[in-house]
Amino acid sequence: MNERHKEELIEWTRRFIQSRNALLSDVISQKEGVDGFDIVVETKTKTQNYLIIPDLTDLPEALDSLGSKGAYLVTLNTKRNLDNTSSHWDELIQHNQLCLIFVNPDSRSDQKWAIYPATHAMLTETKKLRAGLLSLSSTVEEYKK
């Protein structure tokens, strides 16, 4: 994955935020490159931190940078990212306010699926994790570029 992938995901995230705001009309401000996050959105009720990481190979490092802050981690919907999610599941569930958004900006159908690992872990059995992740990821075409 390269810088082009990151820019593509940043642009997708901007449109995602704009689309949500068209429905909710709650965005007060949107800034980029603040406090280690790629995008920070202030709404009427909370702060939304977006971290854009096209390739989750360095997922533990990204999680360390979050500390206790909640965040949306936006990544590409690839097999490698799914594998990294599964292999680092125990670390992911320690972040109560973390949402992973898997994206394929080029998908002809749905472009994203999302999961809150801490919540998911409370509701499902660990031994069924891989099957559940595969089922969720299949709702969006795999990113192939």
Trace the largest sheet across and list its strands. Answer: 1-2-3-4-5-6
Q: Give the total of domains.
A: 1
Major β-sheet profile: 6 strands, mixed
What is the strand tally?
6
Determine the number of helices (DSSP H or I, runs of at least 4 residues).
6
Roughly how much helix do the residues carry, as a percent range?
Answer: 40-55%
Structural class of the secondary structure composition? alpha/beta
For the CA atoms, what is the radius of gyration?
Answer: 15 Å
Rounded to the nearest angstrom, the distance between the terminal CA atoms is 9 Å
How big a fraction of the residues is strand?
25-35%
* Residue-averaged pLDDT: 93
Spans of at least 5 consecutive residues with low confidence: none
- Shape label: globular
* Helix/strand order, N-terminal first: HEEEHEHHEEHH
Q: What do these coordinates show?
A:
The protein is an alpha/beta fold and 145 residues long. It has one domain. Helices cover 41% and strands 26% of the residues. It is built from 6 helices and 6 strands. It has a 6-stranded mixed sheet with strand order 1-2-3-4-5-6. A hairpin with a 2-residue loop joins strand 1 (27-34) and strand 2. The chain is globular, with a radius of gyration of 15 Å.
